[in-house]
TrEMBL record, chain A:
The chain crosses the membrane at residues 12-30, 36-61, 73-92, 104-131, 143-165, 185-204, 216-239, 269-294, 306-326, 338-358. This is Spore germination protein KB. GO terms for cellular component: membrane. It is a multi-pass membrane protein. It comes from Neobacillus niacini. PANTHER family: SPORE GERMINATION PROTEIN A2. It is found in: Membrane. GO terms for biological process: spore germination. The keyword Transmembrane applies.
Amino acid sequence: MYTEKISGLQLFYLMVGYVLGTAIILGLGLNSKQDAWIFILIGMSGSLILMAVFTQLAAYYPGDSLVEMLPKIIGKFLSYPVILLYILHFTYSAARASRELGDLIVTTILSETPIFVVIASFMVLMIYCLRGGVETFARMAEIVFPIYIFSLILIWILLFSVDQFDIKNLTPILGNGLMPVLKDAFPTAINFPFGETIVIMMLFPHLGNSKHARRIGMSIILVGGLLLTINSIMMISVLGPEIYSRDIFSLLSATQMVSVADFLERFDALVILMMVAGVFFKVGAFTFAAAVGISQLLSLKQTRSVCLGLGSIIPPLSLVTASSFVEHIEIGFKYYVTYVHTLLQIILPILFLCIAFIRKKWGQR
Amino acid sequence: MKIFRQMKRLSAKNKPHMKEQSVQEQGNNEGLTGNLEEDFQRIKQLFEGAADFAYREIEINAAYSALILYLNGLVNVERMELHVIHPLVKANEKLPRRAEITIDDMKGILSSAQVKQGTTFQEVIDQILAGGTILLMNGSKSALFISEQSWEQRSVDEPVSEAVVLGPREGFTENIRTNGSMIRRRLKTTKLKFEYMKLGSLSQTEVMITYLEDIAQHSIVEEVRSRLNRIEIDAIEDSGYIVEFIEDQPFSLFPQVLQTERPDRVVGNLLEGKVGILVANSPFALIVPVTFFEMMNSPEDYYGRFIITSFIRFIRYLFLAVALLFPSIYIAVTTFHHELLPTNLIFSVAASREKVPFPAVVEALLMEITFEALREAGLRLPRPIGSTVSIVGALVVGQAAVEAGIVSAPLVIVVATTGIASFMFPSYPLTGAIRLLRFFMIFLAATLGFYGILLGIFFISVHLVKLRSFGVPYMAPIAPFHFNNLKDIFIRAPWWKINERPHETGKRNLKRLSSRKPKY
């Protein structure tokens, strides 16, 4: 069934890029202000447990994707609506990520271009890539990810040159105590972006050496979380907690402040590059997961035409769900991440693991 | 591509007898009769109208006469006179005094190096066509094939398309045997194999597959063999014909077969586990499988000092980006993102564009197409007038156009830099891909600005990682990643550090070095 194989390194690159994806541009933990980095660390630690759940499920049902193992866990009839929910979740998340890209491009560099053109042209690229199968997608990750990380580190180094850079912006650390941050972090910090790594369960069957699945999964969360933490520290140091919590594209605002010797300035291009690359991972993984989910649910022989169909649904979907970007962010963080993500990425997987555990135990007797 | 396949199927249906109609040599598989007159008439009939067909009758003694057949121009007549005709005329004295003389006796008389024997008409005809000299004798059911062929040919010369400063200067010629010998001289081992085959129903072109046993993978050699055997065409005039037949993805712009004029480059690749294909009458050998990064390497890289080479490679990749992107970045900046340039620079660009009546895209397309035309004209023109083109190009297109206010000066700089950059690549077919993709990028930049350029780069990357050359991923060893092979990609590590063959092609026998560099 899974003839296409990807290596552990490819999966790692792909998923770290996916975790950073839109989160690094949008900024996390906006309500926690200068404690945003603690917010991210809390999310990361919580997600390590979540990743253990995902990898344990994958270990119980080796060679099965999420969609294939669900009927084995909760039975055939109950699984259909749940699978459908996941497919909808993946599709909508892909649409959300492409909307974020579209809005960033339109507000920054292409102010007179219709947003639909931006999203649709990106989707054409995505379909072209996914039609080559997961191998092509994974190899793209190997090419794009090093450039992505290089740009990120370059931006960090450049941020030191900003006059307003002041590490004291981080103080007072936990001025109001740990509780407000904790309250804020649960469950949002776990859900976005770490909880979204649930798509890794659609990729595990393609992994060449599945023994390393857990190690790869954990290092994805760790590396991704640490990079996000450093990034938020840099952002807060440059922008200050007040601007950080209000700015939509904080990385972009910070980068725009860079000016080396009055000549090397305008590094926006790097941020745009990072955004396109990050959304490439994100939309790619979500669309791939949704396409594989649909084809496995309907027992189709191939996913290529499903990708094509999804590719024509996602751009309109990304636009009709919210009339403005502010509304889009509000729907996202207030409702979608808080409720839907919690249900699909935390509660249900843990429930499945419990059922699977009981089944395995009883099955053995 | 599916649509092409369907069209092909349809057209094949409409012409069911196509295969039978194609011109081919008729089967002549019967054996020689032994009756000299009868055999000769039959062969002569086949060669009727071919003015280069020549023959000579020699009487050995009263009872036996021999006949020599050959094609004028393919045989070294002087040597034939010396080693074939002269001994035969004098044969009477040497031959044993007995009633019967067989063709085997003749073998002892001829002083040529290569003499073979054959019995069917088909063999005789093939040998004549290949430039052999044929000896027929009455009463004998077999013929002797004497190999004294030689024809006018170009001498070994410096390769024009892959000139180097350091390193060997000899390039392949049109003679496949000379080419084979150049490879053999560099690899004096019995592991070096040459496999002969003939392609083209009319041209009967000799093709040699060459590889190193124990290093090249069987699966790749077998794949090359089977892909070559599947070629059905009337004539192969150059190795370029074969390229299109054996490529994995012929619709891709990127070459998936390396064409080279240099024997040292072939040998270098054989040592990495690749397979070479030599084609008669073509000075270009083919190498498969090949990756993108190998296309970017020049053979000179391995002869020069490694630090300098690494720097030159860096320049090469930098100018790969320039050749592909410079005009499109210029368009994106001047039409969409003025703010991306420092203020002083944008002022001077804007000032020079003030008088220009066209939008930047039109301007750039105009200049790029003119440049391509100049390039092509420079190639086609007879050499003495070639310099005229460069004068016209530089003065008229460059200076006059700027002064007349038709194009802006910065654009001329952009186009000129791009033009120079596109000549930097060691592989000529790759240059073509980059040149064509430049127009694709210009189009994207004109519609979507910097975002369009990014999308274009992503499109090209997706295409490149999808590509395979004989099953080997085109972007190896970057995607899929293989750390040990990075020593010869963006940098060229010193030879004593490149201790492994490329993983994708050389995994049968990875080890290259047996010792470390001695310390002095």
